[in-house]
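Checklist before submission:
- one chain only
- standard amino acids only
- sequence pasted in full

Submission:
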Amino acid sequence: MNLKKIPKLRIGDLEVNIPIIQGGMGVGISLSGLASAVANAGGIGIIATAGIGMLEPDFATNFTETNKRILRKEIRKAKKMTKGIIGVNIMVALSDFYDILKVAVDECVDLVLLGAGLPLRNLKILLPNKLKEIKTKVAPIVSSSRAAKVIFQYWQKNYNHVPDAVVVEGPLAGGHLGFKKEQIDRPDYTLEKILPQVISAIKPFEQHFNKSIPVIAAGGIYTGADIYKFMQLGAQGVQMATRFVATNECDASIKFKETYVKCKKEDMIIIDSPVGLPGRAIKNKFLEEVLAGIRKPFKCPWKCLKTCNFKKAPYCIALALTNAQKGRFEGGFAFAGTNAYLVDKIISVKELMATLLEEYKNASYNEKKRYEAIKNKKEILSGLSPAIQEE
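Returned file contents:
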């Protein structure tokens, strides 16, 4: 590999010029605007489906139909704006998971990312059959090699088929995390540790099905140097979300984007989400009040997440995230990755991608120079006497 050139990502017959998947950010942060811009820049743009209908006035009376209608609209809108690769992120924990998945497949998106749960049952819609070849590629999002193995073994046994790729997300990601609270800062659960384990777990399935199954690293990846590091560890691509928020094309309000620009390192906190998972967010007054025990009354029009106990929840997380997307932070908060405090300005997606590629190139060049320096030192030492070598 040319150390100065970033390799392409291949998922089945999909060829991605820049091996970056823009992470899905729910409740209106990554819709057709951001997704199409990333696709136009050579990466994979992702529309997040979680709470996608909550920005519409009729969501409370017709939640499922609203979600389906808006997702279909956003996919079609994105496809009109780009000839690049468009995918969707779908949480397995969504109550209308199957309905949303069917829309994505019917609209022939290039890729579906399945997270927030193990995608196991009732997934035949994703499998090729005698009547039609399914265009859509599938990549589960996992946080351990054990989870990857469970998914792949189940698919092999029940479908005689396996996913086309897998995303392994470490504990430095934003939003809901696939880790227990006490695991987040433990060395055994870093992305550097779990990435090679997932790669090893997938190898037997690659051999059995005679197909390449790329592993994509995610969670806390912020710079081109980070991309280079994880690709040297065996990842064939990366997923990034946080850094795409502060772009002109991101679908969130300007106030949401400015929250990233203004936040400090000490503002990055881990919260207990009402849906039963830890999450990483930017501290604000709303979260401070919740932590102090102040409840935020709400009416639940639809139990959108299977794991949410809305009768006991101190606030509706979907409503809080909807408010934040609109810039109404008195009634909500922003999820963000651990490095959000590094964001210092709002730029275009094109400029961001160019910056990431330049950072990758520099990291590659520096690595090459270090290698050459070590090699030269060894050659010099080999010509000296043993006594001097020891010195």
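Reviewer check: The radius of gyration is 22 Å.
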